[in-house]
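User: For a reading group we're discussing how well predicted structures match intuition. Take Endonuclease III. Before you show the prediction, I'll give you the sequence so everyone sees exactly what went in.
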Amino acid sequence: MLNFCKISAKIFGMRTKKEINLIKELFLKHFDKPVTELKFKNLYELVVCVMLSAQCTDKRVNLITPALFSEFPDIKSLSKANLNSLKLLINSCSFFNNKAENLIKMAKSVMKNFGGEIPLNKKDLMSLAGIGQKTANVVLIEFKGENLMAVDTHVFRVSHRLDLSKAKTPELTEIDLVKAFKTELNYLHQAMVLFGRYTCKAVKPNCKECFLNEICKSKDKIL
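Assistant: Thanks. Here is the predicted 3D structure of Endonuclease III, as C-alpha cells, for the group to look at:
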C-alpha cells in the first residue's frame, strides 16, 4: 500500500509524506516564528489592517493606517465614521469604496452584537462585513497564534509551485495544506507569505537564492 501511494504521488505530481516533511522543516528553519509585516498595536488595528490588505500590499496598508487610526482610534469611533471621510483616508488602497463600506458595517456590528468587543472566534468573526475565511484565519493566526492556515495569492502560488496542492481555489488549497502540514500552520502560513513575496515571486522568481531549489519541480523555475 505504501509503495502504491508513492507511485500515485509521482504520477499525479503530488508530494510524498517524506517530501512534505522536508519542505515543512526547511520553511521553519529559514523563517523563525515569522509574523505579519502589517503594523498594528491591538486587535482593532489588526482587523482593520487585514481587511485593507485584501488585494493590496502590506506596504501600502502601512502607509494608510497612521492617519486612519489617528482619525478613528477605536471600534466605536469607526462605527460612527462618515463614509466619504473614510474613503478619503483609504483611497490609495485597492477597492477602497467597498472596503470603506465594510469597515463601517463591521464596526457597527461589533458595537451592536458584541458589546464593542471584536469576537475572537472564527464563526463570529466571519459574521462581520468584509471578513471571510482568509481574513478571519489571519486575525486568529496573528493575534492568538492559532494553528490555522490562510491562503492569499502568495501562499496559493507557492503551494502550487511546490506541488503541495492542485486545488483550483484558495479554500480547497487551504484544506490540502492543513492535511499536508497538520501542525505549526500559523508559522508556515506566514513563512509561505514572506517566501512568495520576496523569493518565489510571481514574475522572475529568485530561484538561485531559493532554499527549496533542489526539490522544486515547477515549470516556472528559472535555472
